[in-house]
Amino acid sequence: MKKLIIISIFTLLLTGCGVHTVVSGVEDKAEISFVAPTKKVNLNVKIDDNTYNVQAVYQRAWRKDRNIKKTVKNTIVITPGKHNVEVRNLGEVVFQKQIFVSTGEHKIIEL
Question: How confident is the model at residue 87 (pLDDT cuts 50, 70, 90)?
């Protein structure tokens, strides 16, 4: 019986020691897409100091309960955190705001 108790304590000490690293498995990136009420809206998007040209997703193809198909044409990959976003369509500012995106989040902005 003593032998079993000593082995149990020794096992607990070995498994309880050391530093453990926890990895969530989520990439350190976020995504932004835009939804517009008309088809084929080409947008000029400025996020902080970077400029992108993307297409908005047609609003009929998206609902709040359904994900959109992310493509290079309609989704911008950015780092998580605060960003100043300005969206122009045909030279007119249609959206301007500071937003926050979390790691792994896909933020959809309705225009």
Answer: very high
